[in-house]
Amino acid sequence: MNIIEAINDDRFFKGLFRDLRTWRSWEVYLKALFGLPILERKDRRIFRQCTGLKRPPSKAAKETFVICGRRSGKSWISSIIAVYVAIFKDWSKYLSPGEQGYVFIIANDRPQAQIIKKYISGILDSKPVFRNQILDDLQWEVKLKNNITISVKTSNFRAVRGYTILCVIAEELSFWRDAETSANPAHEVLLALRPGMVSIPESLLIGISTPYGKFGYLFEQFQEHYGQKNDDIIIWKAPTLLMNPNIDKAEIKRAFRVDKSSAKSEWGGEFREDLEDFLSLELIESNVIEKREELLPMKDIRYFAFCDPSGGRQDSMTLGIAHKNSNTEKIVLDLLRESKPPFSPDDVARQFCQVLKQYSIYQCVGDSYSAEWVASSFRKNGIMYENCASSKSELYLGFLPLLSNYAVELLDNKSLKGQLRALERSTKSGGRDKIDHAPGCRDDVANSCAAVCVLASKTDEDNTADIILELAKRNEIENLSEEEKDSARITRWLLGDGKLEAPEEQKRPLIGEPKTCLTVSEWIKKTPVTRRKI
Question: Is the model's pTM score more than 0.85?
Answer without folding.
Answer: no
